[in-house]
Amino acid sequence: MDANALQQSWDRVTEHGEQVPLYFYSHLFVSHPEVRSMFPLSMSNQRDKFVSALGRIVSHADQIENDAAFVQHLGRDHRKYAVVAEHYNAVGVSLCATLKHFLGAEWDEDLAVHWTAAYQLVARIMVEAAETSEESSPDWWDADVVSVERRTMDLTLLTVQPRHAFQFRPGQSLSMEIPQRPRLWRYFSPANAPRRDGSIDLHVQQIDGGQMSPAVVRSLKVGDTVKLGAPVGDRLTRWENDATDLLMVAGGTGLAPLLAVLEQIDLQWQQSGTGPLVHLLHGVRMPWHLYDRPRLREVAERRPWFDYTEVVSDDPSYPGTRGKVGTVAAQQALYGRTAMVCGGPQMVAHTLEQLAAAGMRPEQIKYEHFYYAAADQHTGVPALPGQETTGDEQQPPPRLSALPDSPVDPGPDVPASDEGSRLGRGVWIPRSGR
User: DSSP 3-state assignment of 288?
Assistant: First the structure.
């Protein structure tokens, strides 16, 4: 496959903006209307997510051959959407139809060969990963809601109890579907290290205009049953007994995965009496957003290896440390430390910039993101587990499902709708959005 041809042609397609996902989804929906029931009723804020990610991934398939971990994760993750191998054929056909429509005469036999080869590679990796994971894990885990605590006006601390063993590493994220919003999956990070009883704490911040977070904060109740997807991500994890000192930088509910890592270190310290030095900075806009302040202050008093700094950016009357948490983080002792950064996209980008300017090398800075970054993209868009925005920057990872609510005229290339189902329906099996 010709990597340059793939990338350049995709760049030209994306110049058509929102017409690209509209055409793609209309083609897929008209060709295979039976798949519509797999998706949420409202997709108005997600129409471009899948097609943008799909194009970016396939157009950089030459890089995936060297590191397939992300695409393998996508394959495993899609099991919870009932995606089976035959669905990839439908998606591939619609992708090629979209390319043909927007590239016109440029879509010749050679370019089609490159795109089909790249898509075949991506689809094969995803299908193989899904099939392999079926042997060791379910499509999803049912979990009972055992506690719902409204910690602030817009933030809820949720505790769920999986009915079967659910293994994860501190710092990972998991997707969740709630009964009030069927077929909507959003990512959250456990705020605790694995426990003997298996319970998991999640921090959920309500965002106006969000599709899931208001329902979690206002409507989810003890006794409800949620579904959990397989844990993902490893950039905010650490190995047991790793002695590397840490600088943790959290923005808002980006605190959650860092709390899980902190708990892991504390357990290590209690068992062995040794552990790394940890300095946690929690940045918020207003002081009342420091929702875990009492516990963190108590830990700082009891643990000689732990320092805790509260940073408030928007309240001029606040008597403590003020400013952007990334700026404050860059002023700390950095030598010999690894930084773990979790928060919203702007917060993470600013923090990475500040830490780099202060002398930290890229390999010393860890942050999580859940999409495939192109070769010329050096800063990925991070996920903030537990918080959602009205944009699309915090919807990890992209999935093979984002049909429009209202179809548009797909043009003459779209085949007529079939009366019967062509695709196998499959069996349901496996850092925050709306």
Answer: helix
